[in-house]
Amino acid sequence: MGFADRSPEGPRENMADLFETIVERIPPPTIEAGSFRMLVSNIDWDDYVGRMAIGRVLSGEVKQGQSIFTLRKDGRRQRVKITKMKTFSGLATDEVTEVVAGDIVGLAGFDDVDIGDTLAMDEGAEALPFIELDPATAQMEFSVNNGPLAGQDGKKVTSRQIRERLIRETQSNISISVEDTDEGTKFRVNARGAMQIAVLVETMRREGFEVLVSRPTVLYKEIDGKRCEPFEQVWVETPEEHLGGIMENLAKRKGKVTHMEHHNAGVTVEAEVSTRGLIGFESDLVTMTSGHGVMSHSFLDYRPYCGEISTRLSGTLVSMELGKAMPYALDMIQNRGKLFIGPGEEVYNGMIVGENPRREDMPVNPAKAKQLDNMRASGSDKGIQLAPPIKFSLERAIEYIAPDELVEVTPQFLRMRKRELDANKRRKLAKTGK
Q1: In angstroms, rounded to a whole number, what is the distance separating the alpha carbons of residues 259 and 287?
Q2: First-to-last CA distance in the chain?
Q3: Segments making up each domain of the chain, as ranges
Q4: Which CATH number fits domain 221-304: 3.30.450.30, 3.40.50.300, 3.30.70.240, 3.40.50.2300?
Q5: What's residue 378's pLDDT?
């Protein structure tokens, strides 16, 4: 158990002195005079009452059943009746019938409410100021799993189930939006960054979904007749011995270093990088610094397109058979590159099973078994030694794949595959440039 004392010679018994000092030194939150007003700072969803507005009551009080006004950011003013109220205690919530200034609460009864709206008792009240959210900068494609192993692991696999789950996410997370496509089995999800969408995908797989997701792409804008893309302000903290590799990686991604500071813990590098160039950088940082590097970033602005950025210089080993990976076949394949799978794992035509140092993809047959005969050669009984396969996290997998590849996400498995599984069709598409 910890302790805190006002002097080095203190009794060292408990944390009472720390809590007393906080009460003495830190001023309490100000309570404004006047009728009920609250700024909506978050959104929640309740299956029984729908959308709930969460925030801290700045002034006044309100009771369940009372009517208040929603002052929308676009200037509209809508009258609503409070149907449910809850307060927060740690991770738990308690239903209440009345809240007062200073309470952090959730209120229900709205047909529509967003972060940044003001709730007030009086229709003529002044809307509270709000800092605008950063715009969505990344997009990923979600689609139904159409691979040979579809439906063997997850229970929620249809386009209707996937769409309903994505729409439900937008009801409690306003920084995510969903667009339908011409194909009923595909949806586009826009978000603040690739990490935010990866968290959603991870949540869905734990809920029993199977889904195919694409590599993140950025959302471009046309500004003054020029094609512009989002840029980020990036801060990287790294041990000094890894600084050269970090600088080289940023340069490869067309990043511009704006400030560098050396300190006892290492080096802090500040740079400006396009969101497109930032995709996959965090994984590279962790690898280069053996987990000691730390990165943070925030949206900067839209700037003119900075040109092509190539982050993956290798090709892949693509399976051309359906079956289980055999040790004999993997032993031969590992001489051509690095393996992503181990013996006994299910593979199929078009699935990515490894990486090769050349730029082009290489077809392999990991399901090939050793042919048996009645002849015995010297050394034929020698044990096969396979290198441990490289295992990808979900975030690393979606950053690794190329535009013509997808990640198959199920509750138990992550598989990388070609968007078009048939090799002949892939060759035709490559010739037409699609």
Answers
A1: 23
A2: 63
A3: 37-120, 221-304, 315-370+385-432
A4: 3.30.70.240
A5: 47
For the stretch 43-56, pLDDT in tens is 888 888 888 999 99
Residue 375 has pLDDT above 60, yes or no: no
174 has pLDDT over 90: no
Pairwise CA distance, residues 364 & 161, whole Å: 35
Q: Write the DSSP string, 214-252.
A: E--EEPPEEETTEEEEEEEEEEEEE-GGGHHHHHHHHHH
Q: What is the DSSP letter of 183?
A: S
CA 174: distance to chain centroid? 15
The Cα–Cα gap between 268 and 42 comes to: 32
Instruction: Write down the CATH superfamily of domain 37-120.
Output: Translation factors (2.40.30.10)
- The CATH class for the domain spanning 315-370+385-432 reads mainly beta
- Give the pLDDT confidence of 262-290 residue by residue, as tens digits: 988 899 999 999 999 988 888 888 888 98
Instruction: Report how far Cα 273 is from the mean position of its chain's Cα atoms.
Output: 19
pLDDT of 1 strictly over 90: no
Q: Of all residues in the chain, what percent carry a pLDDT higher than 70?
A: 97
- Alpha-carbon distance 50 to 40, whole Å? 16
Instruction: Yes or no: say if 215 and 261 are a contact pair by the CB < 8 Å rule.
Output: no
Q: What is the pLDDT of residue 74?
A: 81
The backbone region for 60, taken as left when phi is positive above 0, alpha when psi lies in -120 to 50, beta otherwise, is left
Contacts of 408 (CB under 8 A, 6+ apart): 145, 147, 149, 210, 212, 414, 415, 416, 417
The DSSP H or E segment spanning 272 is strand 266-274
Report pLDDT for 381: 45
Burial 208-232 (b: 16+ CB within 10 A, else e): ebbbbbbbbbbeeeeeeeeebbbbb
Query: Is it true that 37-120 and 315-370+385-432 share their CATH fold?
Result: no
Highest mean pLDDT among 122-136, 218-232, 308-322: 218-232
Provide the residue count of the chain.
434
3-state helix, strand, coil in the chain (%, to 5): 20, 35, 45
CA distances (Å), origin 415, targets 149, 232, 282: 10, 30, 21
Q: Is the pLDDT of residue 404 over 70?
A: yes
Task: Give pLDDT, residue 43.
Answer: 86
Classify 114 as helix, strand or coil.
coil
DSSP string, 75-109: S-EEEEE--EEEEEETTEEEEESEEETT-EEEEE-
